[in-house]
Protein: GMP synthase [glutamine-hydrolyzing] subunit A
Organism: Methanogenium organophilum
Amino acid sequence: MHPIYVVNNFGQFNHLILRMLRDLDIDAKMIKNDVPVAEVAESCRGIILGGGPDINRAGNAPAYVDTGLPVLGICLGLHIISTARGGSIRPGASGGFGGIEVTITDHDTILAGYPDTISVWASHGDEVAEVPEGFRVLATSPICGVEAMAHESESIFGIQWHPEVSHSVDGSRVYENFNALTLDRA
């Protein structure tokens, strides 16, 4: 079975994503974001685009979105998905670091099993300004209009908050749901 790749976009929590996957007994490996796209497409069953400080340092990560594999973007990973598919980002009006309440408006596959409101940990400066065509918003918060989004027909998901941080209640559920989506590609 191929592992899930966690793409390191130089974010402070990328190693926590890998640690959470390993704690869940999910086979995962961290890769740099400059690994050739064809190599990534052939050697994993799903891609998690981790966070980072600057979308200009995303390397090949935008091209990973179009591999046909399930993709989950966290924080900057959400922004990479958005811009790669024609959406846009902007500086958030309330960027920062701390706990927030998120309202889930669509319990799509990636957010299956969560209640309508959850407490999560946010650490971001930018946010999705324009959702790309073919995507729908799954969750919002008082400080961010796009806390989560999903593609209508492809297994591509983006989340603004950090489920891998212990302050996010039941954060492991996001990764368990994503893993389930990848198992038929093992």
Summary: The first strand starts at residue 4 and ends at 8. The chain has a mean pLDDT of 94. The radius of gyration is 15 Å. Strands lie at 4-8, 28-32, 46-49, 71-74, 88-104, 117-130, 135-141, 144-151, 156-159.
